[in-house]
Amino acid sequence: YWVIAPSLAVQIGTASLGAAAVLAAMVLLGLRSEFSPERVLLAGIALGALADAIVGFLTASGDPRALFLMRWMSGSTYMVEMQTALTLLGVGMVLVTLALFLRRWLDLLPLGPAPARGLGVPLGRTRFVLYGLAALMTASATLAVGPLSFVGLMAPHLARECGLKRSLPHMAGAACFGAALMVLADWLGRTLLFPYQIPAGLLSALMGAPFLILLLGRRA
């Protein structure tokens, strides 16, 4: 925000620093509980509220670049260039390859803390590594199009509803569903009010919120 025309390398670097700072804060908050999901979730909510407050302060400053920041916060693909897409594709392939080597941990963690520990899974280290990998993936995707949290929330649930429960097919199914949801939201955003564009993030939220409410109602 404070750099007038940041290059792609500067954007990736600052995004990595931001992700590392948030991850470090979550590590400090979740260290004593061995990164239990409940503790990490509460820490994420608190840090998300802090980040929203900082963004709100920047947008209220009156700087003309606040318009770009607001467009990015809404989750728009309008400003994505081919160079950015190809660079982040390469980063994503590297991170996904790393995730494939951790699929045994992903298969055992859903069994619960005690069974997973009994099968030789070091819970604290495993959760730390997985959270760090997820933070890097999130930072890479967010850099290009902004926060699209509802796509990330919907895709894994859709894959699981289709019977994909093992880690490897579940990751592949979630990636396919996420890509399809992203393309659908982007296409609807470009065509519903043509020639005006609705950000893909807003449409994904409009589609995702009712889906998650319905899913919670079914499980309740």
The gyration radius over C-alpha positions equals 18 Å
> What kind of oligomer do you see?
single chain
Stretches where pLDDT falls below 50 for ≥5 residues?
none
The helix content, as a percent range, equals: over 70%
CATH topology-level fold name of the largest domain: ABC transporter involved in vitamin B12 uptake, BtuC
Total strand segments: 0
Which sequence of SSEs, written as H and E, runs from N to C? Answer: HHHHHHHHHH
SSE class: mainly alpha
Distance between the first and last residues' Cα:
43 Å
Please give the CATH architecture of the largest domain: Orthogonal Bundle
* Arithmetic mean pLDDT: 78
Describe the structure.
With 220 residues, the chain is an all-alpha fold. The chain folds into two domains: 1-147, ABC transporter involved in vitamin B12 uptake, BtuC, CATH 1.10.3470; 149-220, no CATH class. It has ten helices and no strands. The longest helix is centred in the C-terminal third of the chain and has 25 residues, at 167-191. It starts with 7 loop residues before the first helix and ends with a helix. 17% of the residues are buried.
Key attributes of the depicted protein:
220 residues, mainly alpha, ABC transporter involved in vitamin B12 uptake, BtuC, 2 domains
Can you give me a brief rundown of this structure?
By secondary structure, the protein is mainly α. Helices cover 76% and strands 0% of the residues.
SSE layout:
Blueprint: H1 8-30, H2 37-59, H3 66-73, H4 82-101, H5 103-108, H6 113-118, H7 123-145, H8 149-161, H9 167-191, H10 200-219
